[in-house]
Amino acid sequence: MIQDRLVLQVLQTLVSSLPPALYLVLLSREDPDLPLARLRANNQLTEIRAADLRFSPSESAHFLNQVMGLSLSQDNVAMLADKTEGWVAGLQLAGLSLRDQAAPTSFIARLSWRWPDMGLAWATTRPCLSLRLNNSSPIRAAC
Known about the structure:
Strand content: 5-15%
Distance between the termini: 33 Å
Shape: elongated
Strand order of the largest sheet: 1-2
Helix content: 40-55%
Oligomer: single chain
Radius of gyration: 20 Å
Order of helices and strands: HHHHHHHHHEE
Largest sheet: 2 strands, antiparallel
């Protein structure tokens, strides 16, 4: 969130008087203190929220079974989609771990983490991971 009042005033002025050919992209975890309602009403704002970035159940199934080459049942896909909340990075980490599993259903059921608890930055900045499920077996992810 923008803390400096001067920076916020400059940004508010810029947003209020954008020329038609200029596009401004803002990324934020919280709505900035800008005239968003006016921009929405004038069809000058495109918002992409977290829900827009999540995979649907059918997209999750396609990614896991077609792209990653797994053969998971719809129930297994649904469990993974629930645990990862449809975030592709979480689906990919789980999919990499499932490649060597003879019993994917029990493996998925033992997954104790949920995607928001992992933290997107933590998961995406580590090329190699070693997590523990119920303090017993490691999850392996490719580098």
